[in-house]
Amino acid sequence: MRTFFLSFLMLGLGSLLAACGSHSQWGVATSPVSLEELKAVAPKGQLAGNAQPQLYRVSLDLDPREQRFSGNVSIAIKLETAATGIWMHGDDLNVTRVTVTSGGESQPATWNEVLSTGVVRVGFPRRLKPGYLTLDIEYDAAFDANLAGLFRVDEKGEAYALAKSESIQARRFLPSFDEPGFKAPFDMQFTVPAGMVAIANTPEISREDIGAGKELITFARTRPLSTYLLSVAVGNFDKVDAGVLPPNSVRAKAIPLTGYARKGKGAEMDYILKMTPELVQTFEESLQQPYPYEKLDIVAAPQWPSGATELAAAITYRESRILANENSGPAFLRGLKSIHAHEMAHMWFGDLVTPPWWDGLWLKEGFATWGEAMALSQMEPTEGHDVQAVADAIGAMRLDSLASVRAIQEPILRNEDIRNAYDSITYNKSLGVINMADSYFRPDVFRPALGEYIARFADGVADSDDFFHVIGKTVGSPDLTDAFDSFVLQQGVPVVSADLQCTSLGAKVALSQARYRPLGSSIEPGTRWTIPVCIAWQDGAESGRTCTMLKTREKTLALSLPEGACPGVIHPNAGGVGYYRFTLGAHEWDALRGSFATMPETGVLTALDSAIAAFEAGELDAVRLLDILDAGAEQSGNQAANLALDYYGDLLERVKGTPAEAAAQARAGAVVAKIRSVLEADGGDAEMSARLDRFAAIKLNDEEVRVRLMASAETYLDTQTGLSSDEYFPALSVALADGGPEMMDRVLMATDEIDDPVFDQSVVNALGTVKAAEGSARVLTLIESAELGPRETYTLAMMQMANPETEEATWTWLKANMPAFLNSIPTQWRRRAPRLGQYFCDTARIAELDDLFAEYGAQAEGYERALAETKESIRLCAALNEATQRDLEAAFKISAD
User: Fold this and answer.
1) Which residues lie across from 225 on neighbouring strands?
2) Cα dist. 72→60, 135, 141 in Å?
3) For residue 298, with 0-12 CB atoms within 10 Å meaning exposed, 13-18 middle and 19 or more buried, which class applies?
4) Which listed residue (155, 268, 310, 343) is catalytic?
5) Of 860, 772, 770, 769, nearest to 814 (Cα)?
6) Is 346 annotated as a binding residue?
7) How far is it, in rounded angstroms, from Cα 717 to Cα 746?
8) Which among 579, 606, 569 is positioned nearest to 387, based on CA atoms?
9) C-alpha angle 35/36/41, rounded to 5°?
10) Which residues does the entry assign to the active site, renumbered to this chain (predicted)?
11) Sequence-ordered list of residues with C-beta below 8 angstroms from that of 50, at least 6 positions apart, any chain
12) Which of 218, 362, 385, 585 has its CA at 20 to 30 Å from residue 569's CA atom?
């Protein structure tokens, strides 16, 4: 990996040219090269780095009311070795002029878009010697229609243009070196319709009336940035002045804070803007590193392909994630806080210090995900953000249980595979590994080491080896580096077996490690990790924990109890912060279940996940599993209850239509009733109550709850009162199921009448649950027309595939219409299309998936990993059903006796 740094004080363009000296930089004339010859040698992934951008000067003419835009870019480049041309990036750009200048001499150059991924060859008329050159490019292009690159959207009569640059989409609107490792300052100018708001990465320093109803806006020079961090936004945004981030003990200067939302929605930025100063200060104090940019803009985009993107100093969110109003429920606000903390963490992890290539994506996304709970737990220590972090890490373990899963870091050799790194392994497994290190080595040691890493590589790039070196040296423990290395570079979830052994000499636990293998898996044994393991124990009123670094296949750990004492309970993942599962004997499982009431919720979460995993590996019987699920749901907090209910939902689907169905419904209903009684005794919990209503109405078909939700939906559609945003989805799902075609008309009309992006998204999700034949047929017409939007079209298809009642009709339609479907969804989502089959549990479907993507895979570049993981999931589902179905049905019947 190359590692280089760029100074704030960049040489001006004239200085770069003067540095070339008086001797000619130009050599012999070059010969023409055919496009086929170029394709044969074009870099399919990372560029070689022979040409290093030093400074960009960008001028864009942008009118979001039009269909096209134009631009000019001048790039100062350092050429490391003599060359007849350079490789760079540009995708579907109409380039009208390219000029290369070196040594005071300018020559026309050629522009060839060689690969479909936007790899470009700029050819020189003569060989250039090493040194400095300037590339000037004039071009125009169409605004994208599918939320990629520089796209335009119309919302409530207003047009907006926004740039989604990550990961390799800046090349769609800017000829550039579109890789994270190429960091350089940018001088940006926009020509826009007079009076329109324009947003870039730095403050606006001048606005000039140039006639013809247009203004020329100039922005301050940026710090060195990667192209994926560029902000370009133009439109009639509401601008909300939120004052400044005041100076503090870490940062000496005030930072202007501004919110932007589409016209008429500025007031709904209030919640996120008010929490921002404390959030920024929390990161600054934790890392002992100041916020690095000249301003901080929070932008609510009318449409955005992801939840948010960390555009430097101009963080941009899909508006449905951050616009808050009087109907915003507690779950929505929790999500708002989390996504805001995630993006704020990126200002240090990713923006200021950047991985040189996409295989190091975890260094920004993993730390940003970890930063959510790290910061929010300090701001709101009793709100369960630490529990959410453990739940998120557990969520990654299902994907990490596949043989076909990728490691946190592994080579990315093709541009088509870059987006495959944006998965729960990079985000949530990395979170779990970092959380484990933070806990084991202690926050007061680990977090200052992170600050040292940030300071060391500020404004530059750093790969995993750089990180491991700095963090290990600062903490002073080679175990830290070994642990990170083993988890980052290897696939899979460790499972730690814990065998409690008590003698007159004391208590000890025999530990062993292996890679988790569910029933039907092709995973080979042999993987070994360096695992920070902590065992919690309880002996009557006494309790404690004992920790070790498990480096070998087996190890015996003595517990710190009085001589001769034997604990009644052990938990092999104390506090639940270790990224591993565990197994116990039957007696130890029963004892652990009995202690849930006195255990921290994080411990209950990991126990529930480990029990589910043991059942799916054939190592825990269904009776004991159900008892553990019930205890976890009834005696702990929201996240544990959510995990238990989610798995109950899966089990209910498995026994649907069998003699055990009624017993399963009754048992799940009893669990819901018990949770409700606990909530009532504790004074109520609106967030969990909404979750229980959703489960009862949709999974249990609870008539009382459905009648109540139907009435609430009717009231909301009439008055926009009576529902919080957390209740939109269950209420609308019931209304669409029970209200017939007239209700679907009414709900769809409401999306035009009610200006609430969270409501709009809930409508899409609720439409995805429609099961009746007539309603499902209408949902298919919405998918076919794509009239609800690119993201929404994909969501509808995925949710209809998740419904057993609508799966076949939806799959038949998808097979017949796959090219049109792929063209209607966000460009960067097309690689996900094989995951539409993830709910299949019949291995006969695998051939259908293979055939479909053999025919249409070229339209979904990078689909191969999603296809492999989906096929494996189908095989595992079939194997699980075959091995455990009889046991599961019997367990539910026993509970009814």
Assistant:
1) 184
2) 7, 10, 12
3) buried
4) 343
5) 860
6) yes
7) 8
8) 606
9) 95
10) 343
11) 79, 80, 81, 83, 86, 87
12) 385
Question: What is the identity of the amino acid at 639?
Answer: Q
Q: How far is the C-alpha of 169 from the C-alpha of 149, rounded, in Å? A: 5
CA–CA gap between residue 711 and residue 743 (Å, rounded): 13
Strands of 90-130 (E only): list them: 94-102, 105-108, 110-113, 119-128
- Residue 157 one-letter amino acid: G
- Residue 132: in which H helix or E strand, if any? strand 131-142
DSSP-derived letter for residue 185 is -
Tokens of 298: 């929070």
Contact 191, 214 (CB under 8 A): yes
Rounded to whole angstroms, the maximal C-alpha distance in the chain is 95
**Amino acid type, 746:** R
User: Residue 23, annotated ligand binder?
Assistant: no
Q: Which pTM does this prediction carry?
A: 0.95
The pLDDT tens digits of the residues spanning 705-747 come to 999 999 999 999 999 999 999 999 999 999 999 999 999 999 9
End-to-end CA distance of the chain: 64
Q: How many CA atoms lie within 13 A of 358 on its CB side?
A: 21
AA identity, residue 480: L
Sort strands 308-309 and 296-301 into parallel, antiparallel or unpaired. unpaired
Closest CA to 496 of 588, 425, 594: 588
Tell which residue, 552, 551, 595, has the closest CA to residue 574: 595
- Spatial distance between the Cα atoms of 274 and 431, rounded to a whole number of angstroms: 27
Which has the closest alpha carbon to 685: 212, 329, 412, 294? 329
User: What pLDDT, on the 0 to 100 scale, is given for residue 2?
Assistant: 33
**How many whole angstroms from its chain centre is CA 881?**
31
* Complete domains list, the chain, with CATH: 1-144+159-200 (2.60.40.1730), 621-701 (no CATH)
Cα(293)–Cα(291) distance, integer angstroms? 6
- What is the rounded distance in angstroms from the CA atom of residue 875 to the CA atom of residue 837? 12
Question: Residue 207: enclosing H or E segment and its boundaries?
Answer: strand 204-211
Q: What is the DSSP letter of 57?
A: E
- CA geometry: angle at 745 spanning 740 and 751, to 5°? 130
* CA 84/CA 86 separation, integer angstroms: 7
- Better-scored residue on pLDDT, 503 or 170: 170
Element (H, E) at 301: strand 296-301
Mean pLDDT of 373-398: 97
Alpha helices in 572-702 (DSSP H): 586-594, 601-616, 622-635, 638-655, 661-681, 686-698
Given strand 569-571, what is the order of strands in its sheet?
Answer: 542-550, 531-539, 569-571
Tell me which amino acid residue 85 is.
G
Which residue type occupies 404?
S
Residues 6+ apart with CB under 8 A from 482: 530, 551
Letter for the amino acid at 63? D
Q: 75, 25, 24, 15: which is closest to 51 by C-alpha?
A: 75
Per the document, the length of the chain is 897
Active site (annotated) includes residue 268: no
For 749-764, the pLDDT digits (tens) are 999 999 999 999 999 9
State the pairing for strand pair 314-318/296-301.
parallel
Amino acid at 68: R
The pair phi, psi for residue 280, each rounded to 5°, is: -60, -45
Cα 240 to chain centroid distance, Å, stands at 28
Cite the DSSP H helix spans in 380-522.
Answer: 385-400, 424, 430-441, 443-457, 464-475, 478-488
Summarize pLDDT for 444-475 with one digit per residue, the tens: 999 999 999 999 999 999 999 999 999 999 99
Token pair of 684, please?
């109520």
Buried b (16+ CB within 10 A) or exposed e, 58-79: bbbbbbbeeeebbbbbbbbbeb
d(CA 303, CA 777): 27
Residue 213 CB neighbours (<10 A): 10
* pLDDT band per the 50, 70, 90 thresholds, residue 22: very low
